[in-house]
Amino acid sequence: MNPANAIPHLLTEQPRPQGGPQFPGHFQLSEPHQAQGLGHAQLQNSSTSNTAGVSSPTASIPATSVSSGKRTASQKPPSRLSGGASSVGHGQAATASPLKTMELAPAVRRRKRKLPEKEIPHKAAASLPESAVYAQLLEFESRIDALLARKKFEIAETLKNPLRTQKILRIYVFNTFANQEGAHTDRRTTDPPSWSLKICGRILEDGTDPAALGSIEGPRSPYPKFSSFIKKMTVYLDQNLYPDNHVILWENSRSPALHEGFEVKRKGDKEFTAIVRLEMDFIPEKFRLSPALQEVLGMEVETRPRYMAAIWHYIKTRKLQIPGDSSSFMCDPALRKVFGEENLKFAAVSQKIMHHLTSPKPIHLEHKIKLSGNCPAGNTCYDVLVDVPILIEKETTSFFNDLEKNKEVDAFDGAISAAIKKIHEHCQRRAFFLGFSHSPAEFINGLLASQALDLKLVGGDTSRNAENERCSEFYTQTWVEDAVIRYLNRKPSFSAEPRSK
């Protein structure tokens, strides 16, 4: 008897009714690795009053039940027969089933219950006074883990819309030319005269230009590229000089790729004035304030949070809030021009102010295409105040990496899990020997019966029952006659072999 083999199954069974094994919780049959071809798998055994069968927890095969020294077993025909008319248990006939062997499936394998990693068994908790404190610590740990997970999710959601700061976007418009008359060019070239109009923009860091004029591909900047700030760009050329394609249009929605600048190249040797219209793509969205609202707030184009904060600051500094009613304020002459009322509630400001907001006007730039003199030609620039995300990518990455690195906590969790596993093993071992101490004889009988069935499963013989074969009633069943005939039909083949003398 090896108690260690039975330990994993100590706590997986429920109490059995009277007449079954006295200690079923200590033994559990293993399931065969493949379905066995039972000889009488097509038949259904009739349930009789004098037949008692105990099913294995993991396999639907007959098991010997031990009770008060008397053994009874369910009837199963030998596996050497492939079919029969009927099956009789203890001399009583049963109706045959039309089921085929291939239609029968083995019992579903039950998954072994996974032991809890940090929970102390309930039976062992009574013997461990410290288990109550340990349970409280587990509860505190679960609360902390939930809080950290929630905060981490909130931080991740916040980083999807990062904080922004105002920076100056400087837009440059200039042109270059080649092969023009009077210029210092190679006279042997056959290329026609041409020019290129270039529009580029960069974020100024601390008011300094990060690149020299004339270079679209400047030094790599951590800020978004120029095209990410442009919603729509239209370039108008002289229609008399370029009648076929004098309007060039670029839209951000049609070109997902980001660019540092744009270039329009044409053939020509005549100077003219090109017009560039830029519609900015402000993130967050900006609005142009009406003249009356500009007079109050002192801003022309601004985002919704900023102009709402400016209105509140205006009311607070001039003490226009109504005493005793914090939800309303008085309107001075400047505010009356905007809202048209003497008193107004703060909740109505958002609705009232919508009539004073419009989309920002496009930026209108004019540049004269020069084909002589210095190259590149032109020194036109335009500064636009834009919002750019704060660069905290490195800090956030290191922050999340530090949250994931919990080597010390993982080491403690491993030690706790190992201790809990050892407690489980000791509890199962104690239950095993406690069952033996209560009734040694019945415990040994039940253990032997369980191990005998396990041995049959391992050997592949799942249908024969030696206990039934000892009884004469076993050979009075209807399938015996068919079995004898088959046996006699095979016997001449054995008798034909020469006998050794």
UniProtKB/TrEMBL annotation:
Q: Which PROSITE patterns match?
A: SWIB_MDM2
Task: Report which superkingdom the organism of origin falls in.
Answer: Eukaryota
Q: Which SUPFAM superfamilies match?
A: SWIB/MDM2 domain
Composition-biased stretches, type Polar residues, lie in 42-77
Q: Which intervals of the chain are annotated as region Disordered?
A: 1-101
The secretion signal range is none
Composition bias of kind Low complexity appears in: 14-28
Pfam families assigned? SWIB
Which InterPro entries does this one have?
SWIB_domain, SWIB_MDM2_dom_sf, SWIB_MDM2_domain
Ranges for domain DM2: 282-359
**Protein's UniProt name:** DM2 domain-containing protein
**Provenance organism:** Cinchona calisaya
